[in-house]
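Field guide to reading this record: the first block holds the primary sequence, the second block holds the structure written as discrete tokens, and the final block holds curator observations. Each block starts with its own label. This record concerns DNA glycosylase, catalogued under organism Paenibacillus stellifer.

BLOCK 1 — SEQUENCE
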Amino acid sequence: MNPVEDHLDVGLQIVFIGFNPSLKSGEEGHHYANPRNNFWRILEKSGLTPRLYEAAEDGELLKLGYGFTNIVARPTRAAEEITREEYNRGREELRVKLERFRPKIACFVGKGVYTEFSRRGQADWGFQTGAAPVVDGVREFVAPSSSGLVRMPMEEIIGIYRRLACEIQEQPDEEAAGFAEE
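BLOCK 2 — STRUCTURE
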């Protein structure tokens, strides 16, 4: 199965970073394609997107200033199947991507994604302020996983993502300003 293509560009507001694609995402070729994954519903309900997008539209979110990548490219049934070697290689590849594309915010979709990348033992929800970011100039935001297996109440998850929406609406660039006014 092929990896799911990154959607990255210079100057993005946010790059969403997952562990790795699900098998369904690998089959479909789009991020967060598993119908049990709540990612697209969370984006809409938090105010990050003006409507409910489908996984097949993931590339369209570049127009909103949002990109997608993963710490590991290989699709698996569960994150537990990712090897230590894949994490080590993926951590370096992700650092290079963030240095090259320089998004304003790297949003880690799950605490485990962030701790694997940063090699820090813990993280709080939201912006990470206790230490310097791994990539200078890229703010780090930790959000709950959007997996349907997450036990956190959906309203609490949406509330954390809403903090991200509020932040980018407070400091818009030209493209995001157009979205905020819609």
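BLOCK 3 — OBSERVATIONS
The mean pLDDT is 91.
The beta strands are 14-18, 66-70, 105-109, 126-127, 139-143.
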